Amino acid sequence: MVVLLVMRFHTRIRISGLGMDDYLCALAAVGIVAYVALCLSAIELSGGRHLWDIPLAKLTPTYVRLCNILANVYMVTAMLIKIALLIQYRRIFHPSPVANLLLWFGIVSTALIYIICMCILLAYCVPRPEDYPLGGWVSLSYSNRCRMPSAYVVLLSGILGTVIDIYVLTIPLAFLWGLKTTVKRKAGLSAIFLAGSAACIFSIVGVVYRVKMVTADE
Question: Which of 168, 198, 195 has the alpha carbon at shortest distance from 107?
């Protein structure tokens, strides 16, 4: 990832200069590194195991707080990646008023969806002053308040994230053939964009597992 990011920056600086999409890519890269580091920390604290396999002693305030931070870092990073792609498409298809409108719709919708999801998590899944005398992050009052909102945010963000991924993939394919270039080049560019369908497949698989997680008895 770092190598590809450096190559992107080097090429953009030499050809046309950096744009907003490049800066957002850099921020997203920082988010990815932070997310991976937090995941490794969570694994050391019993993250990734079934709940029935986690000893009660492992459910510490540090672990619960880390899970909360992980969820927010993931959503910020996902938002930055999707918006960076949409801004890049806007630079490519800027002459088309219809493409410009659709891309702005995607940018605003993506930002609103993830910001609303993060606000819900912050509203329900951060301990309140009255929770701390009862255990703070591991108090029963905190757990009861956070459990269902966080589950539905995880599911909703997964579903809407998948819709956005499909939207991001569809726009360039719809307008690509209107570019003034050869048919061979258009076909090659279409193949490159279609490679992004893998992200949509992973998103759909992720939604399936999120549904199982939310509806599971464990």
Answer: 168
